[in-house]
């Protein structure tokens, strides 16, 4: 357990302290599967409640933010117009959701290119920029395709999401996005148990969970229970947190709750 601290029932402040620096502007990118959008907006609300000005966007597509999320919504097709609209807002704490377009057929917003987010960080338009940088088609697990994920180079932290339900269970290709890539990385066949060894491969492989993470960014894995957690999962995840030195933190929680986290292991 050298270098790894176990946090039972960590609060929201512990997550912020470990994943977000006081140095602003700060960029957090979310990848993986099993709750990216809900986790992104949970963190946005926690940061805004702490007095931060938070910018939310995506480098792919995401569902249009609900009115109840507390965000000011800006949708501008031209890059210069987006920046002008952003600058015209009061520089107060709160959440601004910035997108380039809205696809009404899918109910999804289209975001910004990664280099635009690099520019937004350099211009200090917000204290915190939270970016959904991956898609998973509602699956609980995934491996990236060749063109994924679209992480801005300026990211300070990358948070990978996974659903807890498949962990330790037989692999079902129907519930794993990019099954072919997932099987190649983990060595699993359909029906094989999603074991500690397989998950370790997903963490460490250059085309795995943290693919395209910038070298300066910290790496955190959030396992979303969605209200249910097999008793064997925390011990398996604790071993992974201890054994994989490239992992800066591993968090378990129901990310639809306001105080979601039940377990954490963080590297000191």
Could you give the topology of this structure?
Elements: E1 4-8, H1 12-19, E2 26-32, H2 36-49, E3 53-58, E4 61-63, E5 71-75, H3 79-88, E6 94-99, E7 101-103, E8 108-110, H4 114-122, E9 128-132, E10 141-142, E11 157-163, E12 176-177, H5 179-186, H6 196-204, E13 218-224, H7 233-243, E14 249-253, E15 261-267
Parallel strand pairs: 2-9, 2-11, 3-6, 3-9, 5-6, 10-12, 11-13, 13-14
Antiparallel strand pairs: 1-15, 4-8, 7-8, 14-15
Summarize this structure as a short list of keywords or feature phrases.
268 residues, single chain, three-stranded antiparallel β-sheet, Rossmann fold, alpha/beta, globular, ten-stranded mixed β-sheet
* Major β-sheet annotation: 10 strands, mixed
Strand % is 25-35%
Class computed from helices, strands and strand pairing: alpha/beta
Q: What spatial form do the alpha-carbon principal axes imply?
A: globular
How many separate domains make up the residues?
Answer: 1
Taking all Cα atoms into account, the compactness measure Rg is 18 Å
Distance between termini? 11 Å
Strand order of the largest sheet: 1-15-14-13-11-2-9-3-6-5
| Oligomeric grouping of the chains | single chain
Describe the structure.
26% of the residues lie in helices and 27% in strands. It has 268 residues and is α/β, with parallel strands linked by helices. The protein has one domain (4-267): Rossmann fold. The strands form three sheets. The protein has a ten-stranded mixed β-sheet, sandwiched between helices. Strand 14 (249-253) and strand 15 form a beta hairpin. The protein starts with a strand and ends with a strand. The mean pLDDT is 94.
